[in-house]
Amino acid sequence: MPPEAVDLRPTGEEAHLRALESLYDSAPINQLFRSKLVLPDAGRSEIRFAVSDESFHAAGAAHGTLYFKMLDDAAFYAANGLVSDRFLLTTAFNLHFTKPMRSGEARAEGRWISGKRRVFVAEARIVDSEGEECARGTGTFMRSHISLSSLDGYRTR
């Protein structure tokens, strides 16, 4: 008698986090900003990305667009990891530049700070390949009327 098939798909929080990673991968903007999101647990995120010359401003370092995009995404996904029914929206974001980013690998680390009902606060920082902080930011996010399950990219891998 053959062994019964075992369903190895994640469930509960694990399924939600993997579906958020898929949602991130599905966003068209990430064709311009190649990056990889990992959600180790609800309330934390990490985005690995490469800083290349294509993202530089005229003075030879990464443009603020790259900083904002990675910090906002890292903080957003850290917060949305705590919300399994609705897509969150960024309502405010403060960014502080601390060091120019040059070519190389970098990572944005996000962490939920407070809020569990309607409004969430999360922070993020960017660390370069030498382990030095290049920027940090804090965002405020609120529940939208958009159901996560209605989004094509939100699916368990």
From TrEMBL:
Record has Secreted as a keyword: no
UniProt keyword annotations, A-Z: Hydrolase
Keyword Magnesium: no
Top-rank taxon, per record: Bacteria
Entry-linked Pfam families: 4HBT (PF03061)
Start and end residues of each Thioesterase domain: 60-135
CDD domains in the cross-refs: PaaI_thioesterase
Protein name: PaaI family thioesterase
Organism: Sphingomonas caseinilyticus
